[in-house]
Fold this sequence. Notes:
The chain has helices at residues 24-33, 70-75, 119-133, 137-140, 146-150, and strands spanning 20-21, 36-43, 46-53, 55-57, 60-66, 80-93, 101-115, 152-158, 162-167, 185-188. By secondary structure, it is α+β, with helices and mostly antiparallel strands. A hairpin with a 2-residue loop joins strand 2 (36-43) and strand 3.
Amino acid sequence: MSNSATPTxxxxxxxxxxxxxxxxxxxxxxxxEGFVCHVAFTVGDQPFVIPTGYVRYGDEIFVHGSAxxxxxxxxxxxxxxxxTVTLVDGLxxxxxxxxxxxxxxxxxxxxxxRLVSDVSEKTEALRCFTNHVVENRxxxxxxxxxxxxxxxxxxxxxxxxxxxxxxSGPPNDDEADKAWPVWAGVIPLRVEALAPVPAEDxxxxxxxxxxxxxxxx
Length: 217
Ligand SMILES: Cc1cc2nc3c(=O)[nH]c(=O)nc-3n(C[C@H](O)[C@H](O)[C@H](O)COP(=O)(O)OP(=O)(O)OC[C@H]3O[C@@H](n4cnc5c(N)ncnc54)[C@H](O)[C@@H]3O)c2cc1C
């Protein structure tokens, strides 16, 4: 794992630069907590930003999809991509409209996708992907057939050029607004697993699912 905390000319946060962080411990912690990213790429002169799942594995993230998907077809050839991950931690309500904000932790990754064509690496990527969402799920479920593996494309994107940006804490109201008679502060937000809803055709002997397996979020 690279611990370089030095941004490149492309990853240096410009606005409020003190919120930018470039060390891999910070970047990895955000990537490991999230599980949905947005992948930006261009086809011709049209940019697309497509939401999808991911997992970090060492110095890369894996993204997968149907071999027929436009996103996968566009990026597997190695075109430039930008991947973002955003964790929303709270709504920041200020006295002024101007100073309203969001507490967040986010990562931006710039790079090019590497096609994962080796079957054992591809299978390992899918195992990590599955277990990233629900702990130990891969070990319980039916594994992909050769046909299913063929229908799935996996790409890896290096974290070599990546940045994190975080905002936390209360609103930054102007001194002159502090007496404005309106509630101000932070409303914390989090992603929370609710009670599981079993499939209608689930065997009664398999009724229980422990959401503690998702609790790391
Ligand atoms: C939930 C959320 C809400 C936001 N709301 C606003 C808003 O309303 N208005 C606003 O102006 N900004 C908002 N931001 C911040 C926004 O993401 C950019 O940081 C901001 O536009 C400033 O970009 P820039 O011009 O300094 O950098 P740019 O020139 O756009 O980016 C330079 C480099 O800095 C890095 N970088 C920039 N932003 C981020 C980031 N968020 N995370 C990780 N790396 C980053 C990237 O590597 C990028 O290549 C929000 C961010 C989040 C996560």
